[in-house]
């Protein structure tokens, strides 16, 4: 049986048994009025919400590889702004993690894996010669702390960020769930307000 078949079979039972009812107590607006940007690492799927005392409906959680914001006008920042302006969030949390797969990632290895999986070399060549810097686009980071600080700075300095919005930076340990504060958004606002 394929994964999709397993998912659909499970889903039929889920709906038939009305297991969805326990999730009906929430809306699209986050109860704790927060938006979180974190990594897509599978270890954080359940650990991060539990470690932050979040239940279904408490927060908007945006996930990508490394919890990295690379562009002030990219998809991640747009999602943050939508959460802040349209979905009643009023705080931002950037949460990186130790042992992240984006630490020290080599873009040349990623491209080699693309080619090994069937992406034609001429496609890579065309992209590179069309002004797309694959090495920059596929680069990770050397320090999770610096990565969190850089992402927080992108959000804090965004011209469309509502004034007075706390933007916090945290690092979670993927084994214990222990949170380390990299930058406290409240303290930042007090010292820069």
TrEMBL record:
This is carbonic anhydrase. It catalyses: hydrogencarbonate + H(+) = CO2 + H2O. The keyword Zinc applies. Keywords: Metal-binding, Zinc. Binds 1 zinc ion per subunit. The keyword Metal-binding applies. Zn(2+) binds at residues 39, 41, 97, 100. It comes from Cohnella abietis. The lineage of its organism: Bacteria, Bacillati, Bacillota, Bacilli, Bacillales. It is an enzyme of class 4 (lyase). Signal peptide: none annotated. GO terms for molecular function: carbonate dehydratase activity; zinc ion binding. Its cofactor is Zn(2+). Its EC number is 4.2.1.1.
